[in-house]
Amino acid sequence: MQVQSLFITATGTNIGKTHTTVKLIEAFADKGFCVGVFKPIETGVDTFPHDASLLLKVCQKVNKNFKDLMPEDITAYTFPLPAAPFCADTEQIIDLNRIMEKYHELSQLCDILLVEGAGGLMVPVTKEYMMINLAKELNAKVLLVTPSKLGCINDTLLSMSALRSYDLEFDWCVNIFEDKESFSEVTQPFYDAVFPEWWSVEEGLQRFISTY
Ligand code: GTP
Ligand code: MG
Q1: Vertex 121, ends 119 and 122: CA angle to 5°?
Q2: How far is 81 from 44, CA to CA, in rounded Å?
């Protein structure tokens, strides 16, 4: 069976991609999937990659094929500068083929591979290649994680617009975290009116998984 892939992106950095991916690993495993995880590029890595380490630890609990891997095995590149990959890659070492090779390697170890992007969709990996190009090249379904803070409607609509323009199949969810208290008044009325099916990471993951 060909591996399925789900690309987890967000409207930007620090929105809750890793948080959501952790929950997805657990939920897919509960449903009986052999789930794997890939963080193609992680920046802001001094001594150890925080995202890759956490994602691997959670994955190792549910997939024995990942048991002997190290965090660096589930990333293609890490860089110390906390910046977009293109800027963090000061020596221009990124080779997109290496990302695809790593993807195919990890695909062999699971039947669904969760791929956590870096930052948002229009984050440059090289001068011309953005995170959204990677999602497209992987032929992945996309899950867009959006924040609950003021300004999120605009960011969410812009990301949706980008996904549509690249003809990517996607679903989206709100990580209700920042400005949690005011979300129901400041943001939710719009979502209720325009996207009555909207869901939150906290409450909607099970239903999302049930479509698999
Ligand atoms: P990058 O990969 O760095 O772009 O960030 P990200 O989108 O993966 O965000 P991440 O999941 O790391 O969340 C950012 C920060 O917010 C982390 O310190 C999380 O602990 C915290 N966080 C995000 N969502 C939640 C949440 O729902 N509950 C709690 N308790 N913490 C959250
Ligand atoms: Mg992350």
Answers
A1: 95
A2: 5
Nearest CA to ligand 1 atom 29: 177
CA-to-CA dists, residue 189 to 145, 194, 196, angstroms: 18, 9, 10
Report residue 13 as tokens.
């950095």
Angle between helices 17-30 and 201-209 (to 10 degrees): 40
The gap between the terminal CA atoms of the chain, to the nearest Å, is 14
Residue 173 confidence class, pLDDT cut points 50, 70, 90: very high
Tokens of 194: 């325009």
For the question of whether the overall pTM of this predicted structure is more than 0.85, the answer is yes
Q: Is 146 in the pocket of ligand 1 (CB under 6 A)?
A: no
pLDDT confidence band for 1 (50 / 70 / 90): low
What are the structural domains of the chain? 4-209 (3.40.50.300)
Distance separating alpha carbons of residues 11 and 120, to the nearest angstrom: 5
Tell me, in angstroms, the distance from the centre of ligand 2 to residue 189's CA: 28
119 lines ligand 1 (CB under 6 A): yes
Question: Is 61 a residue of the active site?
Answer: no
The catalytic position among 39, 67, 127, 136 is 39
Checking if the pLDDT of 2 tops 90, the result is: no
- CA 131 to chain CA centroid, nearest Å: 10
Query: Which ligand 1 atom minimizes the distance to the CA of 12?
Result: 4
Rounded to 5°, the CA angle 169-175-180 comes to 145
